[in-house]
Amino acid sequence: MEIDNSANNIVHHGRNIKWWRKKKGVKQEALADGMKMSQQSVSRYEQMEVIEEELLEKFANTLGIPVDYLKNMAEEARTVIFENNNIETNNGSVDYFVDEDHSTHNYNPVEEIVKLFERLLDKEQEKIALLQKLLDDKNKK
Asked: pTM of the full predicted structure?
């Protein structure tokens, strides 16, 4: 098995397994059950730079992803830039989050920030109303 480990293109099979496991929201214990191994074994494999092809295929099948994602995804390729509702990897290709039901999820961080500020504004308005009520009650006495 030949792997390109140049400075800018480091492939670490174990870290790729861990990254995809977390991306899918799968705990080590659940992955271990699917792989018919112990959680400690999964943890050890996630630390290994190179894993045999057979095991990579088993991990990929258990995670529901193509084996190439584990074999060829360089560390720098996992860095993403959120732009225009798409996820653009730093090699210029555009990826989307696709669930097992093949639905695509676009993530717009601006919408999330707006929702956050709307919630903060609501809380501040509640505080102002409470303080106004306390002040009115104090003035009546």
From this structure: 0.51
